[in-house]
Amino acid sequence: MKTFMKKNITAYSGKDAMQDVVYRSLNEGSICIAAEYTKMRPTLQNKVIADNMVIIKSIWKSCSEEFKADLADYTKKLNIQRKFDYLPAVNRFGLFVKALYAYAKLNISNVSDLEYSVLKTSVVKNVLGMIDNDCLEKISDYGDLTALM
Fold first, then answer.
1. Is the dihedral of CA 80, 63, 127, 133 positive or negative?
2. Which residues lie closer than 8 Å to 9 by C-beta, 6 or more apart?
3. Helices 92-106 & 44-62 angle (0-180, nearest 10)
4. How far is CA 91 from CA 14, 77, 78, 88, 132, in A?
5. Lesser CB count within 10 Å: N end or C end of the chain?
6. Residue 79 CB partners (closer than 8 Å, separation 6+)
7. pLDDT tens per residue across span 37-60
8. What is this structure's pTM?
9. What DSSP letter does each residue of 15-51 carry, written as one string?
10. Cα separation of 145 and 92, whole Å?
């Protein structure tokens, strides 16, 4: 039996805000289930990640425009390199977050302990340092990315 859904819904996954239900597809699309939408309750990990992002956001705002431009150049070069490896594209803030988490892991500390005043004098004070200390992926021709945070 073929079923038809209201509002021209063609996909079986997603939330219908007016009905307050979530559609799910099972058995390779042959079964459609509408279930009540329940919001997941926050966990301790959600709180830790949110607190870390507040700190990372404040560090990002403190960084110089030259550093952000270097990170944008690195991102452009990396996306060109990743395109040939069929990997998804990334953005400069995402790479900045990845680099800070990698730096914190390298120093055996938490992201919540990072401070801008310490970072701007550390080994990851520029994109070149982030690449050399394996906080970011290596690309070809990255020696000119030396603008400080």
1. negative
2. 16, 23
3. 110
4. 26, 11, 10, 10, 20
5. N
6. 89, 90
7. 677 788 999 999 999 999 999 989
8. 0.69
9. EETTTTEEEEEETTTTEEEEEE--PPPP-HHHHHHHH
10. 14
Q: 149 burial class (0-12, 13-18, 19+ CB within 10 angstroms)?
A: buried
Token pair listed for 138: 């290596």
**Which residues are registered as beta bridge partners of 23?**
14, 34
8 Å CB contact between 103 and 124: yes
How far apart are the two ends of the chain, measured CA to CA in Å? 62
Structure tokens at 38: 């329940």
Listed in sequence order, the DSSP H helices in the chain are: 44-62, 65-83, 92-106, 116-119, 127-132
Which residues, given as ranges, of the chain have pLDDT below 70? 1-19, 23-34, 37, 146-147, 149
Under a CB-based contact definition with an 8 Å cutoff, are residues 99 and 74 in contact? Answer: no
Count of Cβ atoms closer than 10 Å to residue 103 Cβ: 22
**Chain center to CA of 60:** 14
